[in-house]
Amino acid sequence: MERGLGKGLDALITNTENIDDKQLETIAIKDCRPNPYQPRKYFDDESLSGLKQSIEEHGILQPLVVRQSIKGYEIVVGERRYRAAKLAELETIPAIIQPLTDEQMMELALLENLQREDLTPIEEAKSYEQLIRELDVTQEMLANRLGKSRSHIANLIRLLALPRQVTAKINDGTLSMGHGRALLGLKDKDVQLKLVDRIERESLNVRQVEQIIQELNRNGRKQKPKQEAQDIFLREQETSLKERLGTGVKIHKGKRKGKIEIEFMNEDDLERILAYFDKEKE
């Protein structure tokens, strides 16, 4: 797969003015199925209804991009148009058929949504995590490939270390990405959840949450300056590992020995992390 595929997305999400009639195919909706790598999990009913009305009045102005599969076609770009066309009870849709690999399908689905700002922070984070795992790339390599900063990707992936109850609230818009990043400053998940309840109850903004977390952390530790300096060093190393591994990391230092805890979501995620350490040995 060519590096920098993201730069060629416009060639696939084609402007109607540049379409050659020979490129267009008319395919049956019943032969289409959604992209299995679609990062977007929620499609707004009101938005789809508006698009359905537009399609009923003007037709589909921009063709879908699909790839041929054993049983019909898989949608690469244009799932909203596909869903709205089904609601409008169309039998056929205009499409451009492209020969694409699974990796290209995955990357293009993410790029389309990123360009249209259709993803929630959690959907975006999970997409980056999946691309890193499936494409076997580092955060920095992915950032260069997608034209994003590494810190942007790292900060989003860090949100996945939050409890599921918290990521669900970020996903539905109850909490902002800023709230989520602030909550990462609390190590105790029970305390995080209690603070989330308070955020909702008192409608706290991000700055207020940050101040509360600073106070909680201050009250939770009364340490000597030397110990505080050691803790700052350990937290910096935690942050560095989190960004490099794209997952939650905790460093515990005891009197004689310490330990490092690295979180993983599933077996594939564990293999990705182990592969990272194998590369570091080379």
What does this structure look like?
- It is a single chain.
- By secondary structure, the chain is an alpha/beta fold.
- Helices cover 54% and strands 12% of the residues.
- The protein has 13 helices and 7 strands.
- The chain has helices at 9-12, 45-58, 79-87, 102-115, 121-135, 139-146, 150-158, 164-171, 177-183, 189-202, 206-220, 225-245, 267-281; strands spanning 24-28, 32-33, 64-69, 72-77, 92-97, 249-253, 258-262.
- It has a 5-stranded mixed β-sheet with strand order 1-5-3-4-2.
- The protein starts with 8 loop residues before the first helix and ends with a helix.
- Residues 1-19 have low confidence and may be disordered.
SSE inventory with pairings:
Blueprint lengths: L8 H4 L11 E5 L3 E2 L11 H14 L5 E6 L2 E6 L1 H9 L4 E6 L4 H14 L5 H15 L3 H8 L3 H9 L5 H8 L5 H7 L5 H14 L3 H15 L4 H21 L3 E5 L4 E5 L4 H15 L1
Parallel strand pairs: 2-4, 3-5
Antiparallel strand pairs: 1-5, 3-4, 6-7
Descriptive labels:
282 residues, two-stranded antiparallel ribbon, alpha/beta, five-stranded mixed sheet
Summarize the structure.
With 282 residues, this protein is α/β, with parallel strands linked by helices.
Q: What helical percentage do the residues reach?
A: 40-55%
Please identify the structural class as seen in this structure: alpha/beta
Rounded average pLDDT: 79
Order of helices and strands: HEEHEEHEHHHHHHHHHEEH
Oligomeric state of the chains present here:
single chain
Query: Helical stretch count?
Result: 13
Low-pLDDT runs: 1-19
Largest sheet: 5 strands, mixed
Distance between the termini: 24 Å
Counted beta strands: 7
